[in-house]
Every structure is written in C-alpha cells, then in structure tokens.
Design goal:
The complex is a heterodimer of chains A (398) and B (125). Chain A has helices spanning 35-40, 60-69, 89-96, 144-155, 179-184, 228-242, 252-261, 300-311; strands at 2-3, 30-31, 44-48, 51-56, 72-75, 80-85, 109-115, 121-131, 134-139, 161-164, 170-175, 199-204, 207-212, 221-226, 248-249, 316-323, 334-337, 340-351, 356-364, 375-379, 382-389. Chain A folds into 3 domains: 16-77 and 169-261, 2-Layer Sandwich (Gyrase A, domain 2), CATH 3.30.1360.120; 81-156 and 276-313, Alpha-Beta Plaits, CATH 3.30.70; 315-398, Beta Barrel (Elongation Factor Tu (Ef-tu), domain 3), CATH 2.40.30. With 398 residues, chain A is an alpha+beta fold. Chain A contains 8 helices and 21 strands. In chain A, the strands form 4 sheets. Chain A has a 6-stranded mixed sheet with strand order 12-13-14-11-5-15. A 6-stranded antiparallel β-barrel of chain A has the order 16-19-18-17-20-21. Chain B has one domain (8-108): OB fold (Dihydrolipoamide Acetyltransferase, E2P). Chain B is 19% helix and 35% strand. Chain B has a 6-stranded antiparallel sheet. In chain B, a hairpin with a 6-residue loop joins strand 2 (14-16) and strand 3 (23-28). Chain B starts with 7 loop residues before the first strand and ends with a helix. Classes of the chains: A alpha+beta (398), B alpha+beta (125). Chain A binds chain B through residues 1-4, 6-7, 9-11, 14-16, 19-21, 44, 55-56, 59-61, 253, 257, 326-328, 330, 349-350, 357, 380, and chain B through 11-14, 28, 31-32, 34-38, 40-41, 60-61, 63-70, 89, 92, 124-125.
Chain lengths: 398, 125
C-alpha cells in the first residue's frame, strides 16, 4: 500500500503521525503550547505551514459529526496574530487592506483580504477592532510572514504601529451547536450579547481571553485568544465542561471538511496570489467607497478593473460539485465536459454530512449554472459524473 | 495495536493469511488503516483477474489521501469483500477481520514476506 505523490506516505515514515496530506517545511516544525497534551491524547500529528498540528485524535468523521451535532475543541495556535495600534490605525488599515476597516465598531470583527498592487490575494484575514485605535489581525499560518511584511511596508507615514503577536497568543476554538452552552458554564461573559463576528475581552475558566464569536466550520462557535501559558488549563477546563454535551477534541482534518461543506475558501486552494477577490466570487469584501485616505488602498486600480471584468463575462466561476459516485475529487484534478477540460478542482473531500464526495472548483462560466448537465471530474483517468451546485453545501439552521 | 501471529505481512503494509486449499485472504494492517485515516472508498481487483506480487491491484481512498493497494503475492483473485465496497469504514474498524479486501489463489509468493514480529519491528508498531 502506498500513497500517490500528492500525499506523504506511511510507507516511508517512521510513524503514522507523519502521514498526512499537507506540505512539509525544511526546518524543524514549531510546536504549540498544547503539543504535549495533543500527544497524550494520542493525536496523529501533521506538519502544517511549519507547525506540528493535530490532524485527528481518532476518526476525523466522528470529529466532523461532533462539531455538526454537539461540540468540538480545536487548537488553532498556528494562526498568525498581529496587533495594530496608533491614532491612524483605522486609516492605515483602510489603505493596507481592501475592506472598510475604519467602519468596524469596537468589539466587532470583519472578514477581509490583503491584496498586492496587481489585485492578487496575499491572504484572507479576520480583523477584530479591540479599541478605538487598536485592531487585531488574524492571518493564515502559511501567509503570516507575508502579511506582516506587507503591513510593515505599507505603514509609511501613518501614525500606526504593527506588532507581531504570534508568540503572544495561543488560539483555541470551540465550535458546534452546544459550544455556547459549554462556554457559558465556564465564563461570566455575556455570550448572549455577543453576536456572530463580535469579540470582547473576558475571563474563561479563570483565564484572560479575547472571546470572539467566529469560526471556520459553518456552526455557531467561539475562538479564544489566550496567553500560551494559559492554553493548557483552558483546554482542560473546556474538555471537562463539555464532557456531558459530548464535546471532543478535533483536528485539522475535520476542520477542512467542515469549512468545505460550509463553502468557505482556503488560501492556497480557492484563493491565491494569482486571483483577485472578484475571481473568487468574493468581490463584496472590496470596498471602493471607503472614506479613509480618499478611497485609496493598495490594489485599488487593478481591483476596479477586476470588478468590471467580473460584472461583464468572467472566464471562470467558483462552484460546488457533488459526486454521483463514490470517488473523491482532489485539488488539481481537471473538471471535464464533452471530453474537454473546463475547470479545475480546488478542494475536494468526502462529505460526512452529505454522505457523498464534494468539491469546490473553478469552471468555465458556460458550465457554472447549478444543474448544468454533463459535468464530470477526471479522477486519475476516469471521468466521474458530478452535479454542479451553488455554494455552500451546508447551511446550519439558525 | 498488535499484529496477529498467524498472518504474514508485506512491506507495503498488507497482511496475508495462510493458504486454505491454495487460497489466501489479504487485507491491510491496523497500522496502515490508522495511517490512512477514515477509509471512504475501496477499489478492489476484479474476481478472475491475475495480480502480481509487488504490483498495484486497486486503491484505498481516505478523507485526506489516495493509496495504491499492492498485491502481496501473485495469483488469481477468487473473491472480493463486497461488505468493504459498501462500507469502507470496516477497513478501519476491523482491518484484520471484517475489513479483509480480497482472496487470491496463490501461484507464487515473494521471499520477502515478514512474520508478525518482523512486521512489528519494521513498522514500529
């Protein structure tokens, strides 16, 4: 038994813990504050963007289903946090990012992107406004350095400072329909008043945390930014508080299938430096009419052109695909129709919730309408039929 | 995890039962199943086809990866496990029992099959 080249193989490594489908870094992997705890729980670890992260603890399908139906606990300490302070922090971020950052209310968060001058996506970000002149930016682990460099480069004459807080935070996420009840049992913070995409400082199980109602699973849930030294006691407290509700520790494998079902893009798959937000169907994150800096921001001209192209007749669109059979499409597989290549899969996995393989793919606009007949995926030489659907695959009942 | 003593093993992480009337049962080890993660699709060789020791004869797909299935011996496929085709999770839950993959009428065995103890040492599990 051996893996195809897209994955690392259990046959060439000393432990199953190294068998996973993510990239490898040349240097020794970094470990989160919860590393020993993951190992004690028997986690299968994987290298992810230079970090040793839990891929799964037991069955990734069980972990996925726990988040959909009960609650799951994640270590996301590999994410990159940067704090921006200073009188001009709002206008600086208006000029450095594509969104209207100055208009975010204190205590609220926004999904946004940082683009290059040519409009290409450098990363997608969550920005929390923690005070009038203070923001916390959360970047993907794989892009954290790129984002930090770009922010520093764009500070210019703005009265604003960018602080690298990657070492200052561990990040735990509790996600799923039972997560608010579990969290409420260990905090006095007003969770009912905490709307989706809001964040407030508080105390959880005796630990100081930024409590945010954000996530990457398609479920209700919370992300807790804490000092690394507090990560382990907090993890244990949440595990205990969630035992009755059926909370389980969850790895990155189910995080990927959860976000895929929820139609959420992943950098390096649906989002790349070669695509603008408009190409990815996320043009709504770009605000041309923001008041800060007279509307000037990095990438504006290129993005204005991209907006026009997208409004006209874009070459390709991001769609969902659902398998009629059982074979799983993977990133990079060609999407085909009438024997021609008409697109490419960006993410694919068996969907535990739908019980079928699903994928996100960029396909020629002519084939992007939901219900388009005759679309398939070339799975290692055989053309398997797929149904074109609108994203997301899964939406929770509010 | 423990590797049953009565089986022999390949370095590709397949197990092979002792032949009964010339027919051996083949599956993948618990170590391999656990390294794969949840198996979601099994493509098994066709009954009546001939497989060759050390060559691919099917594939196992898990949430995260696709793995080739190798034949541990040369011979003719006499039966495949339809239960696994219908419910691939059997490979994870019972790799040495209900999760067996195919039966093969052995015509030739390679000389590098491992004993349980040798395989345990080889795989580190």
């Amino acid at each position: 038994m051996s893996d195809t080249p897209q994955t690392s193989s259990p046959t060439t490594s000393q432990s199953a813990a190294q068998s996973a489908a993510t990239g490898r870094s040349a240097t020794a992997p970094r470990r989160t504050a919860l590393d020993a705890l993951h190992r004690s729980l028997g986690a299968t670890m994987t290298d992810f963007a230079g970090w040793d992260m839990p891929l799964r603890y037991g069955s990734e399908r069980d972990e996925h289903n726990a988040v959909r139906t009960r609650a799951g606990l994640f270590d996301l300490s590999h994410m990159g946090e940067f704090t921006v302070t200073g009188r001009a922090a709002p206008s600086f971020l208006d000029s450095a990012l594509v969104g209207n950052i100055g208009s975010i209310a204190v205590g609220r968060a926004r999904y946004t992107m940082i683009c290059a001058e040519d409009g290409g996506i450098l990363d997608d970000l969550i920005v929390y406004r923690t005070a009038e002149s203070e923001y916390m930016i959360v970047a993907n682990a794989s892009n954290a350095q790129t984002v930090l460099d770009a922010l520093n480069e764009r500070t210019g004459d703005f009265d604003a400072e960018v602080r690298d807080d990657r070492e200052a935070y561990a990040l735990l996420a509790i996600q799923g329909p039972e997560s608010s009840g579990v969290l409420a049992s260990v905090t006095d913070a007003d969770l009912d008043g905490l709307k989706y995409y809001a964040g407030l400082p508080g105390t959880v199980a005796g630990v100081s945390a930024l409590i945010a109602r954000t996530g990457y699973t398609g479920e209700d849930g919370f992300e807790l930014f804490v000092a690394p030294g507090d990560a382990e006691p907090l993890w244990r407290a949440l595990t205990e508080a969630g035992a009755e509700a059926g909370l389980v520790p969850c790895g990155l494998a189910c995080r990927d299938t959860l976000r895929l079902e929820a139609g959420m893009p992943l950098y390096g798959h649906e989002l790349t430096a070669g695509l603008t937000p408009f190409d990815a169907g996320l043009g709504r994150v770009v605000k041309f009419d923001k008041p800060g800096n007279g509307g000037r921001f990095v990438g504006r001209e290129a993005l204005a052109e991209a907006a026009e192209r997208a409004a006209g007749n874009p070459p390709r669109k991001l769609v969902g695909l659902i398998a009629e059979g059982r074979r799983v499409p993977r990133a990079g597989y060609p999407v085909v129709a009438k024997g021609e290549v008409i697109g490419e899969v960006t993410s694919g996995a068996p969907s535990p919730t739908l019980g079928k393989p699903i994928a996100m793919a960029y396909v020629d606009t002519a084939y992007a309408e939901p219900g388009t007949a005759g679309v398939g995926v070339d799975i290692r030489g055989s053309h398997e039929p797929y149904e074109v659907v609108a994203l997301p695959f899964y939406k929770r009942q509010k | 995890m423990s590797n049953p003593q009565h089986l022999r093993y390949s370095k590709e992480h397949e197990w092979l039962s002792n032949a009964e009337d010339g027919v051996s049962t083949v599956g993948i080890t618990e170590y391999a199943a656990s390294a794969l993660g949840d198996v979601v699709y099994a493509q098994l060789p066709e009954v009546g086809s001939t497989v060759t020791a050390g060559e691919t004869c099917g594939e196992l797909e898990s949430t995260k990866s696709v793995s080739d299935l190798y034949a541990p011996v040369t011979g003719e496929i006499t039966e495949t496990n339809e239960d696994v085709v219908n419910d691939p999770s059997l490979v994870n839950s019972a790799p040495f029992e209900g999760g067996w993959l195919f039966k093969v009428r052995v015509s030739e065995e390679p000389d590098d099959l491992l004993s349980a103890d040798e395989y345990t040492e080889f795989s580190g599990n």
